Each structure stands twice: as C-alpha cells, then as structure tokens.
Amino acid sequence: MDYFTLVFGSIFACIFLLFLSKRNKKLPPGPLQLPIIGNLFHLLGAKPHISLANLAKIYGPIMSLKLGQITTIVISSSTMAKQVLQNQDQAFSNRFIPNALQAHNYSKFSVTWLPVNPTWRTLRRILNSNILSLTKLDSNQHLRSQKVQQLVDYVAKCSQEGEAVIIGKAAFKTSLNFLSNILFSKDLVDPFFDSKVELKDVIWNILAEAGKPNLVDFFPILENIDPQRIRRNTDIHFNKLFVLFDDLINERLEEKRSRSIKNDVLEVFLKIREENSEEIDQNHINSLLLDIFIGGTNTTTSTVEWAMAEILRQPEIMKKVQAELAEVVGKGKPIKEDDVSRLPYLQCIVKETLRMHPPVPFLLPRKVEQDVELCDYIIPKGSQVLVNVWAISRDSALWEEPLVFKPERFWSSELDVRGKDFELIPFGAGRRICPGLPLAASRMVPVMVGSLLNSFNWKLEEGIKPEELDMEEKFGITLAKACPLRAIAYPI
Q1: Which of 161, 177, 306, 374 would bridge with 187, disulfide CB 3.0–4.6 Å?
Q2: What does each C-alpha distance from 1 to 8, 9, 11 come to in angstroms?
C-alpha cells in the first residue's frame, strides 16, 4: 500500500465517520435559521401557536427551530404527541422553565415546575390526597353547589337591574371562592361586588408575563439584565399573592392559639409543615397554594367563557342544550353533578369547547436532560419541547370541519379529554397531566355552563349580532378571550 492510498483512505474514513456522527445527531426538519436570532422572526406577532401550526404544515409534525440560543422541538400531531407524552414520557417529563417564573424562587418549590424528583412526588401526593382525589372531590360537592348557586343568584341580580354579565369574571369568582373555601374555609372575593384589587387581574398578569416572548428565555446570558423587566414585573404580582397567603396563614395560627381548629386543607398543610419541616417548608406551601389558584381558576374560567361565547354565536345550540336540561333536570332547577352523566349534549359542548379553545395553546414546555432519539431524529440535551395542542385540535386530518364549533361531532365518539386520546389533550397526558382535570372537566365546567343555561335565556348586548361576536384570542401561557364576553340574562 503506497503513501497516497493510505492518506486517501484515512481522509475517506474520517469523512465517513463524520457523516455517520452528523446523521446520528440529525435534528428534525425546520425552517432556515438566521445568524444569532435563529428562527425568532417566525414568532413575530401576537399568535405564536398559529405561526408554528402553519410552519408545521411545511416541515412536518416534528419540527426543530433555533430560538436564539435555544434548540426548540415543536410537536404538532397526535401521533408525535403520543410518542412524547406516553411512549417516551420519562425522557420528556422535566420542565423548561420560563425566566419569569423563576421570580420569587417560585419554580424551585412549585409542583407545576419542579423536575420529577422526590419533592415533586411528595407535593403531588399532598395535592391529590387532600384536594383532587375522587373521595375528596365527592366530599366537597356541597361547596361547589353553594358556589354555583351564588353564581346563579348573581346573574339573577344583574338581570333584575338590567346589567350585562361579564361571564369570565363571574366564573372566576365562583371558582376562586370554591377553592378558597376548601383551602381556608372562607370566600376571598364578594360574589356580588367587585373588590378594589381584582385577584383575577393579578393571576392573569402572572400568566401574561410568563407567556410573553422574553429575550432572556432565548438568550440566557441576559438573565441578570432582565431587559424587558418581565421577571421583575412577575415578582411584583407574586408578592401580592404571597402576602395574601402569609396573612391567611398568620390569621389561622392566631385562631389556633384560641383553640379554634378548622377542618380544611390549610390545616393539613400546616400539620405537614410542622411534622416534615426538613422537606416541606413555607415556600412549598405558598407555591402549592399559587399552583392551586392558578390551575383551578384559569381553566374553568376560560372554558366557561369560551363555551358561552360559542353558544351565543349559535342560538340553535342554546335551544338544543336547554331542551336537554329541561327534560333531564327540569327547567330552572339546580343542576347536580350526578346529572352530568345524563346530559350527553352538554358533555359534547364541553368537549368541543376544549377542542377549539384549549386552556393552553402549548402544553407547558418540556426539557430533555440528555440526548433523546425520537422517530429517527436526535433531540439534543437541553432542548425545549413544545406540544402545540391548538394545532392538534384543529388538524383537518383528524377533525372534519375543524374550524366549525360542532358539538355533535362527539355524539357517537368515544374520545375523551383524560389523556388517553391524543387527538384531544387539552390537559396533557402522562405523568405531567394536569392534576385538576377531574375537577374542571367533569364537575365545575359542565355544572356552571348547565346552570347558566337552565336558569336563564341569554342574548348579546344591544347592537351585537351573534355572527359579529369578537372571538379573538389573547395569547399567553393560557389562551384567554381577548374581548371579555358580556351578555344579558333573562330568567327562564
């Protein structure tokens, strides 16, 4: 073998090995990247979920982007979602944490954002066993009934005074006061009057800040600068809620000194803190309370508001569901949670609302802690993974007339929202599935929507035709209605 053959063979071997290495580390397809900013220009505008859904039509259901310094993988089909959330759930179970939510060290203590570790399992167990288990949910049914009746009474008051009902605000107060009663044995807001500082605004502001495109999330080197002041603004909102929680806890400790003991969740939390102070401290309790209020109010509020908006746009749907309610429950009578299983059309409306208007456009972002192979592609260590629920829910390959609100599509369908059918995953799936799903989807939302429709006829404010109702979305971590729904109620 001569010298040139040896050199040529060595060079060829190196090139071949390099090719193999690159092929084995092949990223999913994606659009052209610009220097420094990568694909950030694709997120310009108010609706990144729509922009990425449109890109997925070009580059496929698994797509890679470079958002500044961050490799981001976007999942836009039910098949790919199942692969990530079920088949390879363990590899994709940790969180990519928005910088805004690192304010007040919230993400270090939150069951929503902690990695899957012993502390996360402990907090999840506390949450499930004391609030979200079926036994606990059943035992609190009377409280939910009381709060829904207060909602009906509030709407009746507005009707008598000729005032429009702001549906989202009314639904929020109902959800908030239910949660505050199981947690603290008291209402936090007056169901009939507005308070000076609206908790709804504080909670929405946190979600809005966390959902804003933040330069620090794309260029971590800017973390200490916080150029958009997003983390600082979030810290202000966190502080308002944590001060409220501290006041409620101090009030309870003062009550205990006078030997007044209440049987609520706060009492359990304080006992856990006392008995297990090395693992669970006040930071964990504050963050857990915040998780409960954000998760427990936002999903219910947005779903009730979107459902009522869609129903008001199509009066024939209102007539159809009111007829079902009158037949099964009785016109004007209170709806019980046990009635929901006998109200299939109402259940179809809730499912269709969650399909067209999922509470979150993207499931909360995942992060891979090591290189992961996914469908012959390599997802590099440290990548952010986004599941575009909005895109899946409007995929024409899965849904006939996906842009039309049509509850009847679920009449003969076995599809459910519980994380087993990946065509419809508004609450996610796998070990990171939203723990509040049984409360929101099966209890609060159908009973609230059903109660509003069984007690009142509804129409839009004067001068607004159903087809002209503003249905624009307001993007954030959650997907709210941009223009709050206002409607006039008339007793049935």
Answers
A1: 177
A2: 11, 11, 15
